[in-house]
Hints:
The complex is a heterodimer.
Chain A: E1 14-16, H1 17-20, H2 26-36, E2 59-62, H3 67-74, E3 80-83, H4 90-95, E4 111-117, H5 118-121, H6 126-136, H7 145-164, H8 177-189, H9 192-195, E5 198-205, E6 209-215, H10 238-246, E7 249-253, E8 258-264
Parallel strand pairs in A: 2-3, 3-4
Antiparallel strand pairs in A: 1-2, 4-5, 5-6, 6-8, 7-8
Chain B: E1 2-7, E2 11-20, H1 28-32, E3 41-52, H2 54-69, E4 73-77, H3 81-89, E5 97-99
Parallel strand pairs in B: 2-3, 3-4, 4-5
Antiparallel strand pairs in B: 1-2
Amino acid sequence: xxxxxxxxxxxxxxxxxxxxxxxxxxxxxxxxxxxxxxxxxxxxxxxxxxxxxxxxxxxxxxxxxxxxxxxxxxxxxxxxxxxxxxxxxxxxxxxxxxxxxxxxxxxxxxxxxxxxxxxxxxxxxxxxxxxxxxxxxxxxxxxxxxxxxxxxxxxxxxxxxxxxxxxxxxxxxxxxxxxxxxxxxxxxxxxxxxxxxxxxxxxxxxxxxxxxxxxxxxxxxxxxxxxxxxxxxxxxxxxxxxxxxxxxxxxxxxxxxxxxxxxxx
Amino acid sequence: xxxxxxxxxxxxxxxxxxxxxxxxxxxxxxxxxxxxxxxxxxxxxxxxxxxxxxxxxxxxxxxxxxxxxxxxxxxxxxxxxxxxxxxxxxxxxxxxxxxx
Lengths: 265, 100
């Protein structure tokens, strides 16, 4: 394991990305930088940059995330907040492509990127944390938060349950199917292959809109089959209906692994 | 999600608090086990519920179906705020009885 990541009592729980810079593959650092610019600071897009591009993005990297660590990491205003996850996959996680979300039209638009393992994201209520952070950074009017949080919650739930855990809701419609669904959920949450898959949430905003991309590493799905409406007795399928009702725009890309929600500010 | 159950002569009352979402499927059998055949009304008090997602609404429909199957009438009370918004979006008042 990378010595820079090893636990020691004297070290903080998370470290600046610059500590890891030499260990991050050059092509990945270049890809992240090219797509996101990495500054997280709104600038004048028409102006010539006065400084050459920086070699790395501002980031907080932690081995294990929880609510308090994430809030503390966000307080440092990083662009990337990444949970590496426990075990031998740490180095592999660094090689993962965090940039699965579509790049914004304006690469200098402010934003932040949160990457968690599924095992952590499940039960963490990360949409609450992300909306807290959007409010804290002045991107989201608290009065408009409720609908955005519900949409983000639905996208995250889909990414975790149907994406990374690979569960179908179809069983819920069968007699006693809710018990079977609970068993399947427990099984998958005990499977380290599934719980180490990443859930990435990428937020960007401009003066007019907020875009939030939710990216999973599951098997994807045919977005054309997601219901635009659903019968009021259906036991599943409402998540997309909520998103399409409340968001200004919902776009599904990457074979169903990336859902981009767009809202007017 | 947390819940507490009280029983009167004719009804089972379950008070649900917190958030009811996709991570709460495991709690559904606990709620349904309250249907013990001795009461003909199940009252879900949601006045202390802060949030419900589409999976939580699906659980509500399962509770309704299971109650109906045992000739128990489901009544949902006290929905407000974000919970009311989700229920209205899903048009559940057309098939579940809600009371203030």
